[in-house]
Amino acid sequence: MAALASTSVLIIGGGPSGLLLSQLLHRQGIASVVLERRSRDHVLSRIRAGVLEQGAADLLRAAGVGARMDRDGLVHEGIEIAVGDRLHRLDLAALTGGKTVMVYGQTEVTADLYAARDAMDGVVIDEAEGVALHGLETDAPSASFLKDGTRQTIRADFIIGCDGFHGVSRRSIPADRLSLFELVYPFGWLGLLADVPPAADELVYASHPDGFSLCSMRSPTRSRYYLQCPLDEKVADWDDDRFWDVLCARLPAELAARVTRGPSIEKSIAPLRSFVAEPLRHGRLFLAGDAAHIVPPTGAKGLNLAASDIHYLSTALIDHYRSGDDEGLERYSERALARVWKAERFSWWMTSVLHSFPEKGGFAARMQQAELEYLLSSPAAQASLAENYVGLPY
């Protein structure tokens, strides 16, 4: 295999975490190349999360890609919890000393990052197929890939795996060097996207005996709704009318009356799992984002955890190239995982409290009810939820 080029940092995966790292490094004069398996159109078509912690929003601003987010994003100071026919608002800003979250879709974040990389002549190689990683335990790792029918290789000082749960990066680490922790939930989320105004000004998390539901939005004219559903459900069995009927049946009457029905733009079912790989480093390979960990979406932590990984990694790489200080690289896995496990706990807790688990029996149902009653009556419990929801410090 003939070498195509070399670079300082080779990033596997052209989603938001890989593009954000490339952008942050470029602004510090550090060269990088991004390899993405799919086409740009495919990457930009993926419907993903839409709630940014304050720290993630600040990191996007630091990368020079916050202008459109600040113009078009929706700052939320609270969320609502619905239990049965009752609605309870949690004032996140008041509970956290003024911290908020930003509603801005991951698709928009990715589009902003692609535009920024293009404006700076950043190297992003789309449709790089058959990526294989080599020499990870040497000081000259490389990646080979197929592009336009030709096998090519890029050498680098470091390789960063931002290629998701099913990507090649984590699978390139010998199994005996990794510890994997996983919990697969017995249900999924059926999501519907529609160009209709949201039912509420803030996100509504609804607990109901028939299953969890979530009312969220991407803009004042585009709404995103979710329903807990069995894993064996098929999207084809859910026409729009059925979705809207079930959603409204699970919401308090006053909220259901504000739901605007409309044709779906996109509909899909996503399974829920909690997953962590340890450690996040193998030789010159570092894992970030979904390549390293997965959280159920209940706590809105997936993209935000990826952003915190990139914060730790970018800082460590900048220190390495600027001053030869490798403490950040040596401690990356430790620092990132400390925050990952706290977010895993919060996402697991939110999922456990708000979803229906009939298979666990009556005692578990009563405990879940007691947990919700405690949350909605205790300022201390509400402050804990708010602190985690807006994002723990980096």
Question: Can you walk through the features of this model?
Answer:
The mean pLDDT is 96. The strands form three sheets. Strands 1, 2, 8, 9, 10, 11, 17 and 18 form an eight-stranded mixed beta sheet that branches. By secondary structure, the protein is an alpha+beta fold. Helix 1 packs parallel to helix 10 and helix 13 crosses helix 14. The longest helix has 23 residues. Helices cover 37% and strands 30% of the residues. The protein starts with a strand and ends with a helix. The radius of gyration is 21 Å and the shape is globular.
Quick structural overview:
This protein has 14 helices and 19 strands. It has helices spanning 16-26, 40-45, 54-62, 67-72, 92-95, 106-119, 168-171, 240-250, 253-256, 302-323, 327-330, 332-354, 362-377, 379-390, and strands spanning 3-12, 32-35, 51-52, 74-76, 78-83, 86-91, 101-103, 123-125, 129-134, 142-147, 150-161, 179-194, 204-207, 213-219, 222-229, 264-278, 281-282, 285-287, 293-294.
